[in-house]
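Working notes for the structural subgroup meeting. M.R. asked for a predicted model of this chain before we commit to crystallization trials. I am recording the input and output together here so anyone reviewing the notebook later can reproduce the run.

Input as submitted:
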Amino acid sequence: MAELILNHLAKDFGTGRAAVADFSLKVRHGGFLALLGPSGCGKTTVLRMIAGFEAPTDGSIHLGERLLADASRSLPPERRNMAMVFQSYALWPHMSVADNVGYPLKVRGVSDETYRRRVREALATVRLADHAERRPADLSGGQRQRVALARCLVSSPDVVLLDEPLANLDRHLKQEMEETFREFHQRSGATMVYVTHDQSEAMALATDVAVMSEGRLLQAASPAEIYARPEGRLVGGLIGRGAILSLSSPASDTRIFDWSALAPMFSGEENGPKVDVLVRQEDVLIAGEGVPARVESILYEGERYALKLLLDDGQVLRAFNRERLQVGESVRVIARAAWRL
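Returned structure, recorded in token form:
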């Protein structure tokens, strides 16, 4: 049961700014880690260094006690016992589904009944056993992604790497494939590292989320922990929907506020230093005893309305409401909870 350990990892392509800098992280055996961040933040570079497609400029990568790479040496991808699922699926168009899935076994010299059994088992795991003789062109996008997953599973990898695998799918197929990924993880028991810029994907799929910005790791924690207690303004803005307000705070180390503490902060009665406070939409309520606000915009989401509210000091607050209000309407709001960033 080996951990994947990234130790002060760095990558510099000679552009004047490091693509990855001082990146340290442990991925527990059997865990599902999502690397989350905006485009260009370095998450795919981290994935490629783990896979062996890029060598680190500094730092090291270990799988348990085994050194995979450091600044002076790097094991080639084929010696790392890892599998990668690409955004483009990377399937051979002239091969059948079964042949695509079995290709890693063929390269390793596995043949005969062992080969056929493992291909059957992999296809059954992703619910494509009856598609074994079809070609990739005959499959939907979701089915092709399942073939790519089965190809990973067939070689019993220690680590499965996924580079934005749902980016080319529509919303309906994304939801379907999220369920497939969860099942795949549960059945295979493999350690998985998943790159995405979509925070809803990361929160729905992963057991752990690592948030990146400009080549650096900002925070790594479980989805629930990182949603409830983000560290800093960047993480708070990336994870979930809400508003980050600048408010005068009480002179204490308190980071979780209820309305009794927030009310004087909203009204300006507190005289402490200004701090960034994250208020989630689901914690904002229209209530007569609250602070004044004006409805700036309304978005109907089916079962509820998403409101953009303007406070008296010009800051924006966001809320959900079951009943329709009018743009320009004056209301009063409270926040049941907030988190100091």
